[in-house]
TrEMBL record:
Protein name according to UniProt: Alpha-galactosidase
SUPFAM superfamilies documented for this protein: (Trans)glycosidases (SSF51445)
PANTHER family: ALPHA-GALACTOSIDASE C-RELATED, GLYCOSIDASE FAMILY 31
Listed GO biological process terms: carbohydrate catabolic process
Keyword Nucleotide-binding listed: no
Keywords associated with the record: Glycosidase, Hydrolase
Recorded GO MF terms: alpha-galactosidase activity
Cited InterPro entries: Aldolase_TIM (IPR013785), Alpga-gal_N_sf (IPR038417), Alpha-glycosidase_related (IPR050985), GH (IPR017853), Glyco_hydro_36 (IPR002252)
CDD domains: GH36
Record carries keyword Transmembrane: no
Signal peptide: none
């Protein structure tokens, strides 16, 4: 018998959780927080079961928009638990069992030592004798985000990020009470029927919203952030109120949002997508994003690129725009090398002999008309190497154009299909199903030829069409279940590429930031943050990108044009200095003064990039709004803080930047870029504010703040 008062206490110096083992009911997560943190206990009915599951035959006790309060979740009982240390990770596994159906659930919690971040996933197993038709499974259910004081809910605000093509990473705040209002008065109700739900859809993981969210308390600054680590649109989170306490539940695909169903046959298993929950006990969203940044570094695949951070030139944006030829590329190779680029990437169109590269993708053979002469495209690739750079190419691996010979050479089952018909999307595109061995063999052959034979060192992996709900490999398979299978096969394929070519650099792109998630970014080295072509519009995207991707993985376009003023050239270059420079634009047509600004920016970036791979982000003016005239981004290490400030429009020439981590310290402020900047600065240590003057708009500046004395006690 389990002691009805027994509690599992687990964690480390930065995070601890408590799970109550109540004999009459399911185990419940009753506390998660920092050790020694004083928070009010949640009300008795507030903590939800560790695992929430619905099937076709067993749904919820209380109907509504939520997926919690499930019958199966309430019937799961504790069977065993154990904790281990796996290198730098603490791991807790809790085994649950529901005897009537034979369903077992294994909740696996992992946390990196010293970081207030919890990673969670659930493994279901059918030990019964009948198939269970799954419709939703929570990867993490936390019913204790606030204590039992209803006043804490009144000051809580939800966080989420709208994410659109050309307009990525637009963070929003809204009071929790808007979606979970206080309904009581004379009569108290413990649970409503509505909750705040944010869900993905289709093949892209971040089209519409980032697979992230959060909850912050205005007064204390205590903040939760979560991310769903899934590379498709089959994800959902909900955050609401149960018995005067805030909860969050994080899911992969489900029936309500995606039409997902999974038959869990006797003796089989199903694993949820992993999710992560980060906590800042104080410091607001900046503190939680800092913790999440460190967690992302701890979970990704090691790669030399994360240490070197080379500068990349790509010929696409505001440059060749998908029309590369030998004649156009060779002058750009010279200009890129002179600017200090270390990789040179030939983007879309290099394979197309006609006038429509969109519908001809798939075979990935070089165009003879674009690259005439006996050596074809290798004339350009060899010149890139001669100038000391690594050559790269653009691929859209999952796409096959309707005009490509590959469309006819692969079997029907190698493509996305629904109702026994091949899915066509985007005006002439089919989509490969990477579960099929022929699809994977085709792509492996392409990569082995380009990398193994040609010596390509960089592949930009793009994805520009969304073929909808998914694919059915057989009539009984729900398209969303087929999509999940494809998503997991894609990750396995990427792992295989990097196993064979460990120094190959892979960039993640999907019309810019439409597939920005940490299933992919735990494997791929860079993330294209946007396709935005307007340098003024790019500033809020560049500033907010570290919310979604570590700074050293965030590729930001810097695309100076000959018609730009010198202030505008410095503006576009400054946008990339605290991320990864994706240099482009018409470098060969720039004036000498503009070209000098480009070269200066690249040199400054190289001088500070060793700090970027360790730094965590903050936003001295808060997370940027889309129309803000002033925008800032800070990256800080223990000794140094870098700040990029953009002034886009308006009459306001001076802003006070909030830098609380430097409170009371003497600080040396330097203008790093551009050297010709007319920026003025005044440091106020007692207020922890930097008064910054930028006389012109548009203009931008990169500053370095170095602590010259410790903060005063």
């Amino acid at each position: 018998m389990t002691d009805p008062l027994e509690t599992i206490r687990w964690g480390h110096a930065a995070l601890e959780l408590e799970i109550a083992l109540d004999e009459p009911g399911p185990p419940r997560l009753v506390r998660i927080g920092a050790p020694g943190e004083k928070t009010a206990a949640p009300r008795p009915a507030a903590p939800l079961p560790l695992v929430e599951v619905t099937t076709a035959g067993l749904g919820r006790y209380w109907s509504g928009r939520h997926l919690v309060n499930t019958v199966l979740g309430s019937r799961l009982r504790h069977r065993s638990h154990h904790a281990i240390r796996d290198g730098d990770w603490h791991v807790l596994t809790v085994d649950l069992h529901e005897p009537e159906t034979g369903l077992t659930a294994q909740a696996v919690y992992r946390s990196p030592d010293g970081l207030p971040v919890l990673r969670s996933e659930v493994l279901l197993r059918n030990e019964g004798d009948r198939t269970l038709h799954l419709e939703s499974v929570g990867s993490l259910v936390a019913g204790c985000l606030t204590g039992g004081d209803p006043a804490a809910l009144d000051g809580a605000e939800l966080l989420w990020a709208e994410n659109e093509w050309f307009a990525e990473c637009r963070w929003q705040r809204r009071p929790l009470r808007v979606s979970s209002p206080e309904r009581g008065g004379r009569f108290h109700t413990t649970a409503g029927r509505s909750t705040r739900v944010v869900a993905g859809q289709g093949v892209w993981s971040s089209c519409g919203r980032l697979p992230m969210g959060g909850l912050t308390e205005r007064e204390s600054g205590r903040t939760w952030l979560w991310q769903i680590e899934h590379n498709g649109g089959g994800w959902r989170w909900e955050c609401g109120v149960r018995d005067d306490t805030a909860y969050a539940a994080l899911y992969g695909p489900n029936a309500a949002d995606h039409g997902w169903r999974h038959p869990l046959e006797p003796g089989t298993e199903f694993r949820t997508v992993p999710v992560a929950l980060a906590l800042a006990a104080e410091g607001g969203p900046d503190g939680a994003f800092a913790a999440l940044t460190s967690y992302r570094r701890a979970t990704r695949r090691p790669h030399p690129d994360h240490r070197r951070l080379p500068v990349i030139f790509n010929d696409y944006m505001n440059c060749l725009m998908g029309d590369p030829t030998t004649a156009k590329l060779l002058p750009l190779v010279e200009a890129a090398a002179e600017a200090g680029a270390e990789y040179f990437v030939i983007d879309a169109g290099w394979y197309d002999d006609g006038d429509n590269w969109w519908s001809s993708v798939g075979a990935w053979e070089p165009s003879a008309s674009r690259f005439p002469g006996p050596n074809g495209i290798h004339e350009v690739l060899d010149r890139i190497r001669e100038r000391g750079m690594v050559p790269g190419l653009w691929l859209e691996p999952e796409a096959v154009g309707t005009n490509s010979p590959v469309a006819a050479s692969l079997p029907e089952e190698a493509f996305f299909r629904r109702d026994d018909r091949r899915v066509e999307e985007g005006g002439g595109r089919y989509h490969l199903d990477l579960r099929h061995p022929a699809a994977r063999a085709h792509l492996d052959g392409v990569v082995d030829r380009l990398v193994g034979e040609w010596g390509i060192g960089y592949l930009k992996l793009d994805h520009n069409t969304d073929p909808g709900s998914g694919t059915s490999s057989h009539p009984a398979e729900a398209p969303a279940a087929g999509l999940l299978g494809h998503n997991r096969a894609q990750l396995d394929w990427l792992d295989g590429i990097l196993d064979r070519y460990p120094d190959l650099v892979l960039e993640n792109c999907a019309s810019g930031g439409m597939r920005m998630d940490y299933a992919l970014l735990s494997r791929l080295q860079l993330q294209s943050t946007s396709d935005q072509q307007d340098l003024l519009r790019y500033a809020p995207i560049a500033a907010a990108a570290p919310t979604a991707v570590t700074p050293e993985q965030g590729a930001v376009w810097a695309y100076p044009l000959p018609e730009d003023s010198l202030d505008e050239v410095a503006f576009t270059m400054a946008s990339a200095l605290l991320g990864r420079i994706h240099l482009s634009g018409r470098l060969t047509e720039l004036s000498p003064e503009a070209r000098d600004l480009v070269h200066e920016a690249v040199a400054v970036h190289k001088s500070i990039r060793a700090d970027l791979r360790e730094a965590v982000p903050a936003w001295p003016l808060g997370l940027p709004n889309w129309e803000d005239p002033w925008i800032t981004l800070a990256l800080r290490t223990p000794d140094t803080t870098y700040v990029t400030a953009w002034r886009r429009t308006g009459e306001e020439t001076v802003r006070d930047l909030d830098l609380p981590h430097l409170a009371g310290a003497d600080v040396h402020v330097e203008v790093l870029y551009p050297a010709s900047s007319r920026a003025g600065t005044v440091w106020r240590p007692d207020a922890a504010e930097l008064a910054l003057t930028l006389p012109a708009a548009p203009s931008a500046v990169l500053l370095r703040l170095t602590r010259t004395s410790p903060e005063r006690s």
